[in-house]
Amino acid sequence: MSATLQDLHDALLLDLDGTVWEGGRAIPHAVEAINASGCTAVYITNNASRSAAEVARMLDAINLPTDAEHVLTSAQAALGLAADTLAPGDPVLVLGAQSFRDLVQEAGYRLVDSADEQPKVVLHGHNPDTGWAQLSEAALAIRAGATYLASNMDTTLPMERGLMVGNGSMIAAVTSATGVVPASAGKPEPAMFHQAVQRIGAKAPLGVGDRLDTDLAGGVAAGMPTLHVLTGVSGPHALLQAPAKQRPTYIAEDMRGLAADPASLRPGVHGGFSARMDGEVLVLDGGTADSTSHEALLTALEVAWSQPTPPSEVRAESAAAEAALAKWW
């Protein structure tokens, strides 16, 4: 029997929202696949609204036993960035959850809530309760010279009802008011991936996520193989348009891909399909009644990614190809 993808790795560096769960509810097949993988799981999340301990408790509640040492949040990473600017006792304004505020206090800094207290740094993490007043205090502080740092720049957050407003969208309001774009500590920066590898001593890690511009770009930047799952933000059309720095090594419909033959997850000819370029149009042909839309996607990606620019559109020239394209979103 040939080796499966999980056989090639000793650690999974897993995104959470859109990969493992949606708003805390397990995504189908994710829990079973992770538990059966035989790999050490480290959960790396750009969502800074919960502490590592709280995330660990939530994972345990969906039958993914873990602890805070195996959870890395972008709030922790942002605090690391702030350490380069701050001295003990310096004032810091935090837009974020109570867990983020607690981290700042535990690190020896002074929490303030007003620009009038002259914060040296503004830390911006996701918090559903952030409103106009808090955003305005941040804008005033930044205009007065405070360093602006963000936990992450995700514009959306996958939840049970769909894509909600993410931290990056809140940041956009502050940036619009100040002209200042914050440095970001979370993905797609590679720091969290490197920290996770060091923490557990992994030799062959696999980055896993659902969002190309954060999860996959971060894994690529960290120089490790990556698995993209089609259970969250980035779908087939986003993959076709992906620049090289966001392209995953493997693509699976869901986390069951961990137990698949790695060759079946790589871009290339699959399912009897063929692909070619006709000018700027990618033409998908062939396939059979048993071929899958995922096989069509992998076939199309090999050709699309070989071009200097992404295809302007995809056209089907067979019944099987047309049926496959109808399932892309």
From TrEMBL:
Keywords: Hydrolase. InterPro entries: HAD-like_sf, HAD-SF_hydro_IIA, HAD_sf. GO terms for cellular component: cytoplasm. Its EC number is 3.-.-.-. Signal peptide: none annotated. Gene3D superfamilies: HAD superfamily/HAD-like (3.40.50.1000). It comes from the Bacteria. GO terms for molecular function: phosphatase activity. This is HAD family hydrolase. It comes from Corynebacterium imitans.
